[in-house]
Amino acid sequence: MRVLVSGGAGYIGSHTVLALVAAGHDVLVVDDFSNSKPTVQGRLEAIAGRAIPFHAFDLTDVDKTERLFAHEQIDAVVHFAGFKAVGESVTKPLEYYRNNLDSTFALAAAMAKHGVTRLVFSSSATVYGEKAPVPYQEDYEHLSSSSPYGQTKVMIERVLSDVAHISEGWKVALLRYFNPVGAHESGDIGEDPQGVPNNLMPFIAQVAVGRREKLTVFGGDYPTADGTAERDYLHVTDLAAGHVAALEHLDDMAEPARAFNLGTGTGTSVLQLLKAFERAVGRELPYEIGPRRSGDLPAFWADPTRAHTELGWRATKTIDDMCADTWRWQSRNPQGFPDA
Ligand code: WQD
């Protein structure tokens, strides 16, 4: 299939571009580079060994989005594009709602106008909110989120599900990611957050490479084995493979829209991840235990059964793989992707 990847210059998007190409699909990317760099294209083309067309514009531009579908042959869409920083979304709610919702509206309208009926959407475990029983299961009904970012994911899942149910032939997979980490085995692409990393793995990686002084562990008094919070970390190449599996499952999917958890089904604590990273680097890394971060939950992980049984997908990589691959990327690219 010829697949449009929105946000394809981003962390998960770029890894999914490579997985789609490796699976034999043609890929084109649209990205406004608001949270990524144009140099990602050259890295992807070098790894893939082929041209990967990039269209640089903001999907909230309805006319440009429609023109892309009018001029390009597109069979399916994998939709990553959107603002994704939880903390930032609390301080800029209107920008998050406008950007994430309007870009999805423009995309869905262009798909409907041009008869594109296959969509894989980048959702998040954050939609389970704060009360869902762990492990999280897709049929949990009380979706919610305490952040505007998470609420955009809840809303977009509902919008796309409603559109799929009234549109002839639409099939939509809603992929709920847990904690994506790691990097492509080449070490040539990886997570490259702008500014101070919000997420744990890139922060540890920047400590290891000398860009940050030390890790602050947000809370050492949680009701967990070692007192630090537990999450379901999954390797970004496993996550990318999950997108290919979902895309290729759509034709066989009975429902117009269906959610799938992409996770390992296992919780790992902050300190366990830190120790695994130290094994990858071969030395201890400086850290201190600090206060809990507002809004964090003690522990959650996925029930990945539906993805196993319906998508034939399973996470394969270990925590040590995730750390070793992250370290290869970060040590070879201490400042992330070059600007030009
Ligand atoms: C993991 C653990 C922190 C940084 C977030 C979003 C979620 C999704 C994935 C988009 C927590 C602790 C972190 C640090 C720390 N993003 N931590 N020191 O919060 O589980 O999920 O990213 O979809 O929507 O909420 O991931 O990596 O930020 O934190 O101790 O410097 O690491 O408290 O327990 P999180 P995270």
UniProtKB/TrEMBL annotation:
What quaternary structure, including any partners, is listed in this protein's UniProt entry?
Homodimer.
Q: Per the UniProt record, which EC number(s) apply here? A: 5.1.3.2
Q: What is the organism lineage in this UniProt record?
A: Bacteria, Bacillati, Actinomycetota, Actinomycetes, Micrococcales
- Could you say which protein family the record assigns here? Belongs to the NAD(P)-dependent epimerase/dehydratase family.
What GO biological process terms are annotated to this protein in UniProt? galactose metabolic process
Broad class of enzyme this protein falls into:
isomerase
* Full protein name: UDP-glucose 4-epimerase
Q: In which pathway does it act?
A: Carbohydrate metabolism; galactose metabolism
NAD-dependent epimerase/dehydratase domain residues: 3-263
